[in-house]
Every structure is written in structure tokens, then in C-alpha cells.
Amino acid sequence: MARTQTIFVTLVCIILSSARTSSSSAAYSSDVDAFLSCLSADIPPALIYTPANNYSSVLLSSVRNLRYVMPGTTGPLVIVAATEPAHVQTTVVCGRRHSVHVRTRSGGHDYEGLSYASVDPHRRHFAVLDLAALRAIHIDGSRAEAWVGSGATLGELYYAAAAANRTFGFPAGNCPTVGVGGHLSGGGFGALSPKYGLSADNVLDAVVVDAEGRLLNRSTMGEDLFWAIRGGGGESFGVVVSWKVRLVPVTETVTVFSIRRRRNESAVDLITKWQAIAPALPRDLYLRVLVRNQQADFVALFLGRCGILVDTMRRHFRDLGMAERDCQEMSWVKSTVFFYYGTADLPAEVLLNRSSNPYYYLKVKSDHVQEAMPRHAWEIIWSKWLDKPEAALLQLDPYGGQMGSISPSATPFPHRNYLYQFQIYSVWFDSRNGTAAVLEKQRVMMSWVRGLYNDLTPYVSKNPRAVYVNYRDLDLGTNELDEGGNVTSYAKARVWGEKYFKDNFERLAAVKSKVDPHDFFRNEQSIPPLPAAAK
């Protein structure tokens, strides 16, 4: 680990040094100096970070993927660590006034690093609003509702909800360090989704700073913008500083299990059958599959006791062989610990750990499956891809239940009618010294994830391939400016945008044209304004 930390620090120094060198003619030009002066008029200097004052530690505080401290990516000119909504308003107003675009970071889990870095050398002129300090959580137990700051993590929300009432839960993802702001902005899927839908389906209100620097809530922003921020991806329409969410009822005791089957223990047969079974299970039961290390782990959450779960599994999926010995009963909040850490022996307080700097590299691709893949396809995938030494992780998450009961146009997330979501993770560590060695390792791992993704083409979503925006993927395409060079090209953005949003993409662009027509909030995959000719 020490050698890994060494290379990590070395790479950070490279990227920050690169940013300073390239900035000699741009970053410290008069408009940026004026931007800093504008910020300082209303924001305490201790909250404004440049390469000259503790910039690197703040930048790295939420870096979740070491690919984005590699040479070739560009960090922000300035980081503003907002501690109140007024700081967000000031940053937006000053950015508009001095032509410095703003990117927003809550938890830093954007898989392509777009909340704090740029892979496009022409997109250097941006600041980062770090919302980590906007993490207050206020629970209204009588109404089963909560106001949550965008900088809070899912783990903090789970812990606070359960502390208020053991039967309060919230439908969201399994990683507790994910920021609430980014997760809800993309929709938000997790173990309670078959029962209660997406996180975004349970958002009741929000506070947003728009491109004019105004502080808006649901009644003042209007229903179009409220629709767009609940699944349309972050960083396109404004800065959401807090969310009002519905807490959902969970049983006082839930049951979990994790059953492991190797390839010679009928893993392929079980996965093949799981595809049709899992989306049709009772809504109180969520059963996903993790395929890694030559084995398949069937992991479940059931809102109820072990005995009922055993009977349910015997009726619906007898071949898995689930028995009482596989059960672990616990509170719902402890089940969120189990799903992330693989054990419930840790205290619930681990959900409050915001630790970052993961010391790994990551590439993720996602897809959706409409019709169950045949057994022979799984055999080929296992033999060709999962036997390779660089193979990492496949994650299969079932839809069904409440997910399929809600219209695909109710929120920007359109992928509700599939059987399940298919995620391919390529995760690697590299402690070797020398950038060339790191890049070679990256080439091998990226080749694996892309090769498997390509081979899945006959069996997954089509016209277009359906990708979950919270698994952002720059392989799908990146934005370009239109012919006038002022706003993002709608025609170019459709290439990637319709994969994330299908028919909802045009509506998102129409909202963008109303709330941010000058395209202030932009990055490599932000929503473009809809051209007048397309309206």
C-alpha cells in the first residue's frame, strides 16, 4: 500500500504541475483574477482554494478513481468549498460574469471524473463547487420525510433515518460513500427499488441554484425543472443544494443471505434461470448476482423474517437451494452495511465513514437486458472473458415490481421495463513505479471491459443501447460546441444522450433551453439546449 500511495502522490503532482504550466496564459489571466476577486467579496478566503493554497488536498478529498489524476486530465482552476447556499449563488454569479464555468461535486463518484476533472484539453476554464460541507440531514419523523444536503452521503442518510425510527428506510444505492446529490440527480437504484422505485421517485422537493444565481424550490422552479433534476444527470440545469425525500417503511427485522455457487456447482444454470425469476419475485424480495473470482454470489434482501423467506425461495427459486442456515436477520440499516462490506459484524457507524482516496483505477460500463440471455451465451462469456486473469466483476440488478409500474416518462430515467441492469466493472490496482507501466495495465483492463461489452451486443438493449446515467461512460461520445462555438451541439449530444435517456433526451434539452439557454452548466456529457428549429 505504501508503494501505491507513492505512485498516487507522484501522479497527483504531475497533474497539478501540468495544470499550473498550461494555466500560465489562461488560468491566471485577468478574467480569472477578476473571478477570484468576485468570489472573495462574499465567500471567506479560507473556502477558496487555488494551486497556491492547499488546493491538492481538497481536490483529492473526493477522488474515487485514480484514472483522473493521470496525465491527460485537467483539474479545476479554483475549488470553492461551499458551506451555505449563498456561497453556491456567489460562485455561479461570479462564474457567469467572468466566463468561468462551474462543475459540482457532492461525493466524487462520477465514474468519469467529470465533477472535478476534464479529459478535454479545451475545457480548462472551470471551477469546482465542492458541496461536501452541505451535508445536513433533518428528519421529520411525524411525516416520514427528510431534508438532505447534496453533500451528505447515502450512508449518512441511512444512518440518520434509522436513528430517527428503526422502520425508516430509503431506496438508494449500496455504496454508502456515494453523494446524495449525484445519486438522486441520476435516478438512484438500489435494493429497495423493486418495492419503492428509484430514489428520484421519492423526491418531494429540492432547493436549486439556477444559472442566474437564484435560489429556487419546487414551487418557484416549476415542474419542468423539477422533473429534469430527478434523473437527468447532474451538472446540466443548476446546482441542487438540498433535497426533500420521502422515507419509506421497512420492517423492524429484515433478512439477508449470500449464497455462492461456482461454475462446477451449476452457476451458469442458476444465472440463466435467475434472469426470469428475479424481476418477478415479490416486491419485498430483492435478489442480485455478483459474478467474480470464478463464482456467482446470489445476494438477497427480504423485508421480513427468515422463515417466510425460505418458503418464498422454495416456491420461486428452489434450484438455488436456499435454507434457514443461509439466513441472517438484522435491522434494515445493518443490511446496508452487509450489502457493502459483505458482513453485518461491523457497527452501523461505519456508514458515517466518508473516507476516499481508494488507491484503485476503475472503468465501468452498463447495459440493460430485455429478454433473458440463453445459457450458451453465459457459457461463452464465462469461458472467453471471466476466465481471464484481468476479469473483475459483473453485477446483475433485477428490475420489476414498482420499477415497472411507473411510466418511463415520469422522470428522465427511461429504463424501467427491462428485466435487469448489467454492469461490468474493471477495477485494478497498480503499485509499480513509472507511468508507462500504469498505462499498460490500464490498457489491458480497459480492453477487457470494452471487449466484454462488445460481445454482449447480440443479447442486450438495442436502438439505442440503454445505459444508466449514474454509470457515466465517455466511450458513448462527448460533447462538442455548435457552429457558433457558444453552446453544446444538440445533434452531437444525441449520440450519447439517447442511450442514457431515450425519448426523454429531447425533453431534457427543452428544459435546458429554458433554464440555461447560454449553456453555463456544461461538461463533456451535459445536456445541451434544444435548438429553436427542433422545438
From TrEMBL:
GO terms for molecular function: FAD binding; oxidoreductase activity. Gene3D superfamilies: 3.30.465.10, 3.40.462.20, Uridine Diphospho-n-acetylenolpyruvylglucosamine Reductase, domain 2. InterPro entries: BBE (IPR012951), FAD-bd_PCMH (IPR016166), FAD-bd_PCMH-like_sf (IPR036318), FAD-bd_PCMH_sub1 (IPR016167), FAD-bd_PCMH_sub2 (IPR016169), Oxid_FAD_bind_N (IPR006094). Keywords: FAD, Flavoprotein, Glycoprotein, Signal. PANTHER family: OS08G0158400 PROTEIN (PTHR32448). Residues 72-250 form the FAD-binding PCMH-type domain. Belongs to the oxygen-dependent FAD-linked oxidoreductase family. Its cofactor is FAD. SUPFAM superfamilies: FAD-binding/transporter-associated domain-like (SSF56176). Residues 1-19 form the signal peptide. This is FAD-binding PCMH-type domain-containing protein.
